[in-house]
Description:
Helix content is 26%, strand content 32%. It contains 6 helices and 15 strands.
Amino acid sequence: MQANDIFTRLRQFDAYPKTLEDFRIKTFAGATVTFISGLLMFILFVSEFNYYLTKDVNAELFVDTSRGQKLKINVDIIFPKLSCAFLSIDAMDISGEQQIDVDHNMFKKRLDLEGNPIDEEAEKQNLGDKSHEFVNAIKDPLDPKRCESCYGAESSDQKCCNTCEDVREAYRRKGWAFSDVSGITQCLREGWSDKIKVQQNEGCEVYGYLEVNKVAGNFHFAPGKSFQQQHVHVHDLQAFPGQKFNLTHKIKHLSFGKDYPGIVNPLDKTDTIAEQSSVMFQYFVKIVPTTYVKINGNVLATNQYSVTKHSKIVSRGLGESGLPGVFMMYELSPMMVKYTEKQRSFMHFLTSVCAIVGGIFTVAGLIDSMIYHSARAIQKKIDLGKAS
């Protein structure tokens, strides 16, 4: 008896009283509401489950105290109107001096005016344009101890000019224009002039990476051979008299380090059209050192960046007004961003699922009750109208 009394008292706390099956009424509207609410529950459950499977990424801000690191610059840029024979690539630090101890793996690929590759293999590019791209293989063996003429540009430091590049360098030191190569044996032998003419109406794709010292500086793509003259970085354009340089370019990719999930590189897939020849494009890049800690504990040290752009028309190829080319000036932020991946809380996921099921079930019940009672009230009025 006591056990039955206890169960009887416990039944009084039942918040979900049941009705007999005979007193339950099933309607078409109720079935429709049930189907729709079940579909909504399933969709929201799948959405919440997908959200639970993603990683929660927390961002923190620190002062960057790292020292002695290298900055890796990944670049892929297309010049559809500028030949590879004209382009040179340089990396400089903030003082204007050539970057030292630079590890690079840069390549130049010749393109036709439609953007299709001409050569199957790309040619590795040396920083500072040593003009290796101009020199063809010499078919006839030459005496390695020969001393050929510099055509009046000899100096105490350079008395022999055995290659076309040696003659160009000697002319540059004298300040002479290197425009007519028809009488220079070394250039004729190496096919320097012919190669320039062949590549006259071509484009160029430059891609690869640079690893430079982690200090402010710039790297740029500009026509002509580069050199230092009284601590000033200049490009020799005397070999291309009257040449108009179209600096239209497309940046396929530019990043500073490895990619991490969610990174946005603002210059990727950007096209810039030069409305006139001899335009100087300047990109001012602000690099933010970034650390990404994955959920398994692996740490990825990389960088993200923001950029502003400026362009101007230079009146001369070389001078105070500037140099035609694409210049990337970068500086490093003193602050570092740290992203940390974390697994989302299972209890939060469970709470969200319960809220979805309970909320939709309750709202569906209210809607079904409203439809049922409204239909009954309308039917009663119709029946009363018929009776009268």
